[in-house]
Design brief:
heterodimer, A: 293 residues, 11 helices, B: 294 residues, Rossmann fold, 6-stranded mixed sheet, 10 helices, disordered C terminus, transmembrane (chain A), transmembrane helix (chain A), ABC-type transporter activity (chain A), cell membrane (chain A)
């Protein structure tokens, strides 16, 4: 059936069509989130202070260990640059957590604001919606991590002379894809469980933190936990980042890290969209879209 | 079951077949039912079932202002949510300008907008920021849009100095006016209004009502208005459906409803409130004990 059934009194649908309109709609989510960050600047500042102090505590553990190694009999070339090792873990995790958190909490946040129904009713595809939220999460994650890195550089001197920073950036951006996929899947939890879904997203990120080798090599995990590390994209991102920054691995040599990252991204992104679509229909059938907890 | 069947027979005799809309109707609601099931954690306990809408049917003509009158919990908001694609009906079908709300959801969304009793905004963002976001979602961008937004807000009585303040610092009435402006600026061909003037002072109510008429007259919009404000319903609506416990118990023009109920009551010119009490057996201030949980 056509909306233009009566030519003399044509119905005026939403103007524009195609990629341009979808891109503008996607940008609406980016712009809106920038405005929200600006208005909630005091919360952002508090989280940044928390991130910086937590990271400093971890890095000072590394500093202490390195001083002990230096006083001992371990030769300088055999010593691991523990501060840099932990620093990579801290900054990369801050980035991936920001990406995952922004995407994963999009439903919970809008539920809290009371705008979820309005957003779900808007004439934009869910893909456009997710692209906008994801793009913002990447920009936000990079900005937060750069700030964290900048502050840490004031307190710790690290040797980046061998680092392949271009390769590291490639690994980080590729890793974002699968974290967005995981985030979209996590975002369904507040749709399915309005009262406790948000807390469940924290459980997912905590589990990823434990199994992915953020502060330690995966090899120290108990045997039964190690297979979990293989399905976490953070494992490969961290290994790839350490290979490029600590060991100076060339970009052409980071394939073994990029391949699983990209495979996980290709699997988790469409899977996340499919799961979200199913959860949205479930929420619309059961009336859970409206409930605010 | 027998009691329910008797009640159905009693109420159905009050439903006047509405005149068929000329041309394609704007909205067709055909045999819509919606129940909410709440399952307790303990598997041995019975689930709670709330019937929000039961076998509701009506159609709205293009360019009509159609009212849905009902007490709190009568199923009005559930019905509006189903038309606006936010809820999936258990039974029946809904069409908006010939498009099925389930099958053609994306197309239907381009034609509608909704103003609910809650203003639904980002509280820390200003009216201009909130409207800028909403307008982008509806494909409205460009240099002229901001000027039009400011002009619309000014016409609704919102001062320029308040347009950049966080919305949470504005009164509820002001917030509701911003919601009306949002709907107005997106030029929907079907506007769903769910108690849009609740909590507004008389002057603001009048301004909102003027905007609703303007939207209909200048933008060729069809308006579906849920309310329990009798004066507003009488002032705006050409036809009106009365919902009681999720069922449609009457549908006619306001004079038609008054004439029929007046004849049954033996009163020459009953008020709309008296008509409502006659049709439902309760006043609008009472809450329906069945119906939606909202």
């Amino acid at each position: 059936m056509s909306v233009n059934a009566s030519p003399s009194r044509r119905v005026n649908p939403v103007p524009g069509a195609g990629i341009g309109r979808e891109a503008r709609a996607s940008w609406a989510f980016v712009e809106r989130n920038f405005y929200l960050v600006r208005r909630y600047w005091h919360l952002e500042l508090a989280f940044l202070v928390f991130n910086v102090t937590s990271a400093m505590s971890v890095l000072y553990i590394g500093e202490a260990q390195m001083q002990r190694d230096a006083a001992g009999a371990i030769a300088a070339e055999q010593r691991l640059d523990l501060v840099l090792y932990l620093g990579i873990g801290t900054v990369v995790w801050a980035y991936l957590r920001a990406v995952f958190g922004n995407v994963g909490e999009m439903v919970a946040w809008e539920r809290w604001e009371g705008t979820i129904e309005y957003t779900m009713m808007a004439p934009v595809s869910r893909l456009t919606h997710m692209l906008g939220v994801s793009l913002f999460s990447i920009i936000y994650g990079l900005a937060r991590s750069a700030l964290l890195l900048g502050v840490l550089a004031l307190f710790f001197s690290v040797d980046l002379s061998r680092a392949n920073l271009g390769g590291a950036a490639l690994v980080l951006l590729a890793g974002s894809l699968s974290f967005i996929g995981f985030g979209i899947m996590a975002a369904t939890l507040p749709l399915l469980f309005p009262e406790r879904g948000e807390e469940m997203t924290f459980v997912i990120s905590s589990l990823l933190l434990v199994v992915s080798g953020v502060y330690y090599p995966v090899s120290v995990l108990p045997d039964w936990m190690e297979p979990l590390a293989t399905v976490s994209p953070a494992t490969y991102v961290l290994e790839g980042m350490r290979a490029t920054i600590l060991d100076g691995a060339a970009t052409l040599a980071i394939g073994p890290y990029l391949l699983p990252i990209l495979v996980l991204g290709v699997v988790t992104l469409p899977l996340g969209l499919a799961v979200f679509g199913w959860a949205e229909r479930y929420a619309k059938r059961t009336g859970k879209l409206k409930r605010s907890g | 079951m027998v009691v329910q069947e008797l009640e159905r027979q009693h109420t159905s005799r009050l439903v006047v077949p509405a005149p068929a809309p000329i041309g394609q109707p704007a909205v067709v609601v055909d045999g819509i039912s919606k129940r909410f099931v709440s399952k307790p954690l303990a598997p041995w306990k019975e689930p709670t079932v709330v019937t929000a809408n039961a076998d509701v049917s009506f159609s709205v003509a293009r360019n009509e202002i159609f009212g849905i009158l009902g007490a709190n919990g009568s199923g009005k908001s559930t019905l509006i949510r189903m038309i606006s694609t936010l809820l999936i009906p258990d039974e029946g079908r809904i069409e908006v300008f010939g498009l099925d709300v389930r099958r053609d959801e994306a197309e239907v969304k381009k034609l509608i907008n909704r103003v609910s009793v809650e203003a639904s905004f980002f509280k820390k963002l200003s009216p201009l920021e909130n409207l800028g976001y909403a307008l982008r979602l509806y494909g409205r961008t460009g240099a002229d849009v901001r000027g039009e937004t400011v002009a619309t807000l000014e016409r609704l009585g919102i001062e320029r100095s308040k347009m950049d303040k966080p919305l949470e610092e504005l009164s509820r009435g002001m917030q509701q006016k911003v919601a009306i402006a949002r709907a107005f600026l997106t030029s929907p061909v079907l506007l769903l209004l769910d108690e849009p003037t609740t909590g507004l002072d008389p002057r603001s109510k009048h301004e909102v009502q003027r905007f609703v008429r303007e939207l209909r007259d200048e933008h060729d919009a069809t308006i579906l208005l849920c309310t329990h404000d009798m004066a507003e319903a009488e002032e705006l609506c050409e036809r009106m459906a009365v919902l009681h416990k999720g069922r449609l118990v009457a549908l006619d023009t306001v004079p038609g409803l008054k004439a029929r109920a007046g004849a049954e009551m033996g009163v020459a010119e009953p008020t709309l409130e008296a008509v409502f009490i006659h049709l439902t057996g309760r006043s609008l201030d009472d809450e329906d004990d069945e119906g939606e949980a909202a």
